[in-house]
Inverse folding.
């Protein structure tokens, strides 16, 4: 299949799994020449879910385009090796990068993985391995189109930072005037969402610890901590522990579950924790939404219609992301 969007270069993708992580580039190039040993990608996103095996990917395109780049839109791949091959089968460029290597190992400075493709490249090979989700969304751009999109994304981030900063300042102002602790929880909640988002985009690695990739092994703590703050904020906002004994004990079970996953993270079981993160998020969202609807229908809490609307929107987006991660719906 030829995979591209209107602003992209036309390209084809073949791939295969190296279950023992022992195949070298020269061997991989021979395997790609045997049709029944490789798979042809149906779309530009290759998704194996949570998988620790190695994947080899071959990308083929028109080499008459001089300035072009390949972008992998997943910031959390431990190892990404890039090989550009000319028409004679010779390596003309190779890059060894990934989330487990320092940020300056990247070919082009970007929160995702971006590679400049040499002019006389006939094909490109990627070797990808990770301890989390083997999700490899590939985009192939002319260089000017990539930099245009990168600029638009930077503008979006600045707007996002501005809105978040405004929300933080507003929460502190309301707290100063009303002395209601809920506004402090809201500020912490907003900050946790910001940290969660920046971690997901790979921006914290780029900004805070670019020379210490080992920190990336502990991002599960950031995800868990951010989600825990959401739970604390929602429970304080809804005051569920006073309004329902069932929700009170369910909340205790949720807290114990968080403690369990924090312990797993401390023991280095990052892949296992990441494999359950989406389920944790779904459970928390459903719990908050159920508690809010129960309190609204029972008349025990007022002013939560906006809360319900917000969580309905959030659960819709989370389900789309969850099913995309599982490969059940297109996610490219």
């Amino acid at each position: 299949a030829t995979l591209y969007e209107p602003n992209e270069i036309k390209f084809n993708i073949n791939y295969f799994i190296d279950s023992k992580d022992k195949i070298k580039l020269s061997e991989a190039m021979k395997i790609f020449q045997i049709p029944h040993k490789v798979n042809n990608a149906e779309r530009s996103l290759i998704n194996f879910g949570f998988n620790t095996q190695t994947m080899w990917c071959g990308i083929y395109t028109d080499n008459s385009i001089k300035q072009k780049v390949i972008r992998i839109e997943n910031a959390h791949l431990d190892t990404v090796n890039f090989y550009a091959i000319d028409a004679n089968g010779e390596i003309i460029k190779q890059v060894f990068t990934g989330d487990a290597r320092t940020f300056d190992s990247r070919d082009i400075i970007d929160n995702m993985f971006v590679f400049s493709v040499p002019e006389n490249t006939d094909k490109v090979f990627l070797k990808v391995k990770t301890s989390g989700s083997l999700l490899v969304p590939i985009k192939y751009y002319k260089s000017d189109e990539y930099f245009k999109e990168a600029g638009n994304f930077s503008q979006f981030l600045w707007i996002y930072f501005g809105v978040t900063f405004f929300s933080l300042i507003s929460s502190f102002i309301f707290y100063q005037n009303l002395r209601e602790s809920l506004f402090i929880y809201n500020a912490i909640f907003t900050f946790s969402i910001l940290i969660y988002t920046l971690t997901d985009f790979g921006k914290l690695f780029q900004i805070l610890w670019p020379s210490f990739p080992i920190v990336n092994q502990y991002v599960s703590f950031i995800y868990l901590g951010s989600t825990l703050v959401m739970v604390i904020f929602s429970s304080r906002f809804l005051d569920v522990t006073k309004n329902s004994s069932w929700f009170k004990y369910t909340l205790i079970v949720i807290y114990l579950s968080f403690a369990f996953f924090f312990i797993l993270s401390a023991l280095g079981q990052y892949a296992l924790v990441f494999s359950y993160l989406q389920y944790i998020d779904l459970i928390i969202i459903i719990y908050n939404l159920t508690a809010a609807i129960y309190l609204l229908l029972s008349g025990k809490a007022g002013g939560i219609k906006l809360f319900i609307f917000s969580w309905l929107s959030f659960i819709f987006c989370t389900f789309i992301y969850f099913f995309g991660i599982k490969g059940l719906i297109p996610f490219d």
About this structure: The chain is about 50% helix and 20% strand.
